[in-house]
Structures are given as C-alpha cells and as structure tokens.
Amino acid sequence: MNQFDIAVIPGDGIGKEVVPAAIQVLETAAQIHGGIKWNFTSFPWSCEYYLEHGRMMPVDGINTLKQFDQIFLGAVGMPQLVPDHISLWELLVKIRRECEQSINVRPAKLLRGLTSPLKDPIPFDFVVVRENSEGEYSQIGGLMHSDDDEIAIQNAVFTKKQTVKAMNFAFELAKMRRKAVTSATKSNGIVYSMPFWDKTFQKVGAAYEDIQQNSVHIDALCAFFVMKPHQFDVIVASNLFGDILTDLGGAIMGSIGIAPSANLNVERKYPSMFEPVHGSAPDIAGQGIANPMGQIWTAKEMLDFLGYDEIGSLVLGAIEDTLVSGVNTRDLGGTATTLEVTEEVIKNILKKG
Ligand code: NAI
Ligand code: MG
Asked: What domain range includes position 238?
C-alpha cells in the first residue's frame, strides 16, 4: 500500500465545487487499484481567506505545503473584491516558484463524445510543455514619470538552466509518445531571448536524433493549432507563449471546463501542483453546474505523475464514456449538474475497473 499526503486547496468559486468531485474520483481510483491510500488535508487559502486575514495564505504556508507529497488545487479568484494580480501572485505563482515547479504540462486531445468548435477536426492529441518559472513573467522592471511621459519597462528573463530543463522534459516526453517536438519561437521579432531559445533548442535536440524537431513562430503556431492541430505531438514554449497556446488548446477541445494542467517539480524535491486550466468562474459559481471534468482530468495527471498511468488512462476513458453518454454540463450543451456528471464518471470507472 502506498500512502500519499495530498494538500488540497479548493480556492474560490467553482474550485469549491469541482475539487470535491475530483476527490471522489481519486477515492474511487484508489478503491479499484487497492494499493493507493490518499491522506487529504484541506486548506482554505483563497480570496475569501484574504478578505478575512489580509493575505492569501499564512506566513509559513509554503513550508506547510512542502511537507506534502503533492498539491491538488481548484482555482482562485474573486475579481470583484480582490485584484487578480494579488490572488495570482500571492498564492498560485508563489507556490509554483517556491516549490520550484518549473515545468507546466498541459495536454489537449479531441475526446470521444466532445464537439470541438473546429469543423470536422482530424483527431488531435498533443501536450504543451511550458517553462513555468521565468521568461516573460518576471518582476523585473519598473515605472517612471507620469502623464504623457509615463514609461513602463518589463524585462524577460531566460536562463540556460531552466530553458534546457524545459526542453529536455519535452524531448523525454516525446520519446514515450509520437516522437516529435515543436519549439515555439519568435526569433524574427524578439532579438535576444528568442535566438537564445532557438540555439538552446538545437543544442538540446542534438542528443535526441530519433526525435523529429522543428521551430515555428508563435503567431504561425497559433494558426496551425486551428488549421492542423493533429500534426503536433509535444510543443515546448516559454512562459507567455505556453500560457497563450494552452488556452487555445483548451478551446479547440470544446470547453475550458475540460482542460487539465500540472505544475511539476521534476526533481521531486518539493510537491508538484495539479490544477485545471480554468479559473473560479464567478459567473456560474454556487449554482452546482460547473463542469468537473477539467478537475477530474487533472486528477488523472496526478495519478500519471505518481506512476499510476494505467488507472489514469481508465479515468480519462471514463470521462470520454461520460461525454459519449450525453451526461454533460451546460458549457457542453447539456443540463446535468456537477454532481450528476461526477456520479456518471465514477459509474464508468467502476464499470471499467
Ligand atoms: P474562468 O476560467 O474562471 O471563466 C471563463 C469562462 O469559462 C466563464 O464563462 C466560466 O463560466 C466558464 N468556465 C470556466 N470553467 C468552467 C467549468 N469548469 N465549467 C463550466 N464553465 C466554466 O476565467 P475568468 O472568468 O477569466 O476568471 C475568473 C477568475 O478566475 C479570475 O479571478 C481569474 O484571475 C481567476 N483565474 C484563476 C485561475 C487559477 O486559479 N488557476 C486560472 C484562470 C483564472
Ligand atoms: Mg492562462
């Protein structure tokens, strides 16, 4: 029996609805496998917590989290009451950075039973590997002057260490998949960091002769995600490019409520954090109609990372069976509630298991 201590942060809005759903699924997976035991500990850190305590998490919050094997997070954000840069930087980004979760992995796949907004899509199945700790998302820069003379300077940071790490991860992942890596670049417009990115891609790629590799400018790549997503296997991208590409990846799947994401500490020194791509969806929060599939697929990503790929595949298969059966939430054109979809997914796991 393997025991896992999981820190659970439901967060705000629909996070509090979809996280319990996915936890039920994880319990079902453990029941079927027989060799997994989850110890879940829930933390109320969120915007609600901020309104009460003046901070998103306690001072020693990061140290507390570091005691756990993994972190399972819903979504944070109450944009009417707490500015998004506070909820993002003081909780999510803080955890990603201090737990050195320097790789963000986001798969996109045309699932059975899901209608993509693309017309007659050829089935696609790709993974975006996003550098998660630096790049365009730095706190280096500043503001000067005011009124008509106002100046904003925002620096981007690309270290060889993190760039190589993201690229190695992408190549290793491609080895186990369809053996192709595409690098997202923009070296025609960004003259220092992107040529550096390209040069590093070539150097890292030299050790992976059996893997097909090419570089595509980010603007063209966005267009290709719409025109021919089936041609991609693994895409490696900087922090900003990866962020943008993965929303598009989620969109072509059919709903942002489906897309999963994993922030990995590849060295396994600190916990990794698993969270869906979507946010707290204040517009539908509290109604019991949020799609739990993104959070459930995120649970599958955690199972995979822990080495339980077989159970992970079973969970994704059960999501697809549920989509096919038509038990869908409103974002997918159905009328089912979060609870009903969760029950159907669990039923389908038990059928397969
Ligand atoms: P959002 O993802 O929360 O919502 C965008 C749209 O998609 C909304 O119409 C929402 O109803 C719908 N949607 C999202 N997830 C859904 C689901 N599971 N089922 C059904 N419909 C779903 O993005 P938005 O509105 O830009 O941000 C809302 C708040 O969430 C903000 O405070 C933002 O900062 C935060 N946010 C947090 C993230 C995180 O915690 N990782 C990620 C993205 C946004
Ligand atoms: Mg994003």
From this structure: 116-253
